[in-house]
């Protein structure tokens, strides 16, 4: 084998590995831990429904429920319809009760209930990764 | 927040709003002309004068152009854009094995916001422009008068009807990009894999294999488009 052939093959292996590493990096994602959010008790006083960016806090039958705003159909952000007093997905109009139970539409699943724990001064809500 | 950057382009950068509107309308023209050009090419039977491999490469730029256009909607960062991105992400994840890799390459909206869509948008736009430019400019010289005419049209539209940019607000009904309204409508009735992956793949496959069976593929494309326009009409009327 000549020096030229050897260097040529070595460079092909090197460039292919570099391309592979690039594609591996591009398709990789850093795993994120679950997000913990502290909610002050004071902020919930007198309210039956609190709407945050990625979750709802709903008081139903004396119990506090934390529901994800991600629609189980295709991930759109579910919103609140004050006229019908329901949660509605604006993309395909899947409807859910204030307890997150599925009513109608293509979603076919309930809204995901998030873990909420009582702590001093409020609650800690965990949003999964 | 990406929407702040988009609003910043309009409010802070000199003529930023005009350039954003021009960019928007130029992109819509690109898609409409691509549709027209493909129809014209099929009618003129240009596939008979191309090697099948070249035809395959050319037709594969059709869905890539739509992807470049679609990612432009996502990177606006408003509610429509982000919802469109989340829908695309969940649809592509229904693909077995490749779904995760493709999602991480093009979308990953729920994990990374608009970053991947932004990179896809810029990279694809440039790659398509250069590759398709090299192919097409060899065949035909583009007249400056034609370019000027359509640039003027885009300018007129930009001044008369600025494209939408939604502030975050509670809405119970959201309309996606106009060219995907048909798929948005079909997703109400069919499972995501059927409505979002199989259905849009049909015209692409018919287009790629058009040279092999022109009559059947032609009828298939016509029927698919008639059905799609009916869905689009229904979606627009909502």
Question: Over the alpha carbons, how many angstroms does the gyration radius of chain A reach?
Answer: 24 Å
Query: What count of structural domains of chain B?
Result: 2
The averaged pLDDT of chain B comes out at 90
- Helix count from the secondary structure assignment of chain B: 11
Structural class of chain A: alpha+beta
Strand-residue proportion of chain B: under 5%
| Percent in helix of chain A | 10-25%
Radius of gyration of chain B: 19 Å
| Amino-to-carboxy terminus distance of chain A | 53 Å
Classify the helix fraction of chain B into a percent range.
over 70%
Q: How confident overall, as mean pLDDT of chain A?
A: 90
Descriptive overview:
The complex is a heterodimer of chains A (129) and B (238). Chain A has one helix spanning 3-26, and strands at residues 35-40, 49-51, 55-60, 63-68, 79-81, 86-88, 95-96, 102-104, 115-119, 122-127. With 129 residues, chain A is of the alpha+beta class. In chain A, strands 5-6-7-8 form a four-stranded antiparallel beta sheet, with no helix packed on it. A three-stranded antiparallel beta sheet of chain A has the order 1-10-9, with no helix packed on it. The radius of gyration of chain A is 24 Å and the shape is elongated. Chain B has helices at residues 2-11, 16-43, 52-74, 79-92, 98-106, 109-112, 115-139, 144-160, 181-186, 192-208, 214-237. The model of chain B has no long low-confidence stretch (mean pLDDT 90). Chain B folds into two domains: 1-7 and 23-160, no CATH class; 180-238. In chain B, helix 2 packs antiparallel against helix 3 (52-74), helix 2 (16-43) packs across helix 8 (144-160) and helix 3 crosses helix 4 (79-92). Chain B is mainly α. Chain B contains eleven helices and no strands. The chains are: A alpha+beta (129), B mainly alpha (238). Chains A and B meet through strand 5 of A and helix 4, helix 5 and helix 6 of B.
